[in-house]
Specification:
Blueprint: E1 7-8, H1 17-23, E2 26-30, H2 36-50, H3 57-64, H4 70-79, E3 81-87, E4 90-98, E5 102-108, H5 117-131, E6 136-142, H6 146-151, E7 155-164, E8 167-177
Antiparallel strand pairs: 1-2, 2-3, 3-4, 4-5, 6-8, 7-8
Helix pairs in contact: 2-3
């Protein structure tokens, strides 16, 4: 196994018994550049399937067009703290931390939704942000993912309009105050 593909140990907090049983089969590792094609497939498949109730076909097409910029994706894989969730050696999700305070990606394969994978990835990202000295975790969050972020202690700061290929896409600037006294989850009310 390559040095950047080390396995991480995870805690199961706030998951159901079924999720915990499923989670025990999920492993988390750091990304490798060879993961890129599969990450892009998951990105497009998840947005196209899971976000179709909140975004129009035109918005989804514009949003998923970002996979065409392979250099941007490569840069993110090599410059961010980028985690991969695997089940039976198959990638089922990914998440990334930029600059110790920005949750850039958090995506779970369309066929593995609501099984605790996002919770597991998010937990590791939050712990890493705290470890690196981050005090606030920020993210630009889709309407589809907003409930997940609220559940995890984020506050909505503002709606924002992003223009991709001349198409308006609404998402939300969200933030969470990180608690250095608890290296797993923030249990105090945050400041937002």
């Amino acid at each position: 196994m390559a040095p950047n593909a080390r396995r991480l140990q995870l805690n199961h907090v706030g998951t159901t018994k079924k999720q915990t049983m499923y989670n025990s089969k999920i492993s988390i590792r750091l990304s490798k550049i060879t993961d890129l094609p599969e990450l892009q497939k998951i990105f497009v498949g998840t947005i196209s399937t899971i976000c179709n109730e909140d975004y129009s076909p035109e918005q989804i097409k514009a949003w998923t067009s970002s996979i065409k910029n392979t250099q941007r994706w490569t840069d993110k894989l090599t410059s961010q703290y980028f985690l991969i969730a695997e089940l039976d050696h198959k990638i089922v999700g990914f998440a990334s931390l930029e600059n110790n305070n920005y949750l850039d990606f958090l995506s779970v394969h369309k066929d593995h939704q609501r099984q605790g994978i996002a919770d597991k990835l998010y937990s590791e990202i939050e712990k890493e942000a705290i470890k690196r000295g981050g005090t606030v975790l920020n993210s630009d969050v889709s309407e589809t993912a907003r409930k997940f972020f609220l559940k995890n202690g984020f506050k909505t700061l503002a709606p924002q309009t992003k223009i991709i290929n001349d198409v308006e896409i609404i998402n939300f600037k969200m933030a969470k105050q990180l608690n250095f006294n608890d290296r797993h989850y923030n249990t105090k009310k945050n400041a937002f």
